[in-house]
Amino acid sequence: MTPETLHFAARESVEMIELGDQLAPRFDAAGLIPVITCEAETGAVLMLGHMSPEALRLTLTTGEVHYFSRTRRALWRKGEHSGFVHRLVELRVDDDQDCLLARVALEGPGSCHVGFYSCFYRAVDRDALAADAIVPLRRIEDEAAFDAETVYAGMPNPTLI
Fold first, then answer.
1. Any alpha helices (H) in 5-119, and if so which ranges?
2. How many Å is the Cα radius of gyration of the chain?
3. Which DSSP state fits 57?
4. Could you read off the pLDDT of 54-79 as tens digits, one per residue?
5. Are 41 and 26 spatial neighbours (Cβ–Cβ below 8 Å)?
């Protein structure tokens, strides 16, 4: 089986989309679908990414999660630079098939390009909220899981300002 031989169903009815047994993903105007990625054993959310049809097909045929970078406007396989691969355990689709949940086995210490285990290493600090002040964040991961500057040396930072 190759990525080119995988086909998605046409979105023909609400019933087919919500209750059917065929994958009929709804890609947005840019041709992407969001994918939440979590660690399969713990359920910890690792990241939010996007997939193009090609990334989805590659993920399904290789068992390694591929994403589409909106910043770089390019297809990429998680781990191609860091070695920290997302090995697909299960791919779930939500009720109206416009979002995916990739349950993965993480091969490496983390998923975040900043060096943390999860891209969700901070939380809004509701206890410190104050009127007329900027909303504060607090760290929920105290230390980085790996040295991102070493792992991603020479790579452009994907964070947009």
1. 14-19, 53-62
2. 18
3. H
4. 999 999 999 999 999 999 899 999 99
5. no
Which structure tokens are listed for 24? 């009929």
CA gap 45, 36 in Å, rounded:
7
Burial class (CB in 10 A: 0-12, 13-18, 19+), 134: exposed
Count the residues in the chain: 161
Q: Where are the beta strands (DSSP E) in 8-70?
A: 33-39, 45-51, 66-69
Residue type, 106: L
Q: Is residue 1 within 8 Å of 61, Cβ to Cβ? A: yes
115-146 residue pLDDT tens: 999 999 999 999 999 999 999 999 999 999 99
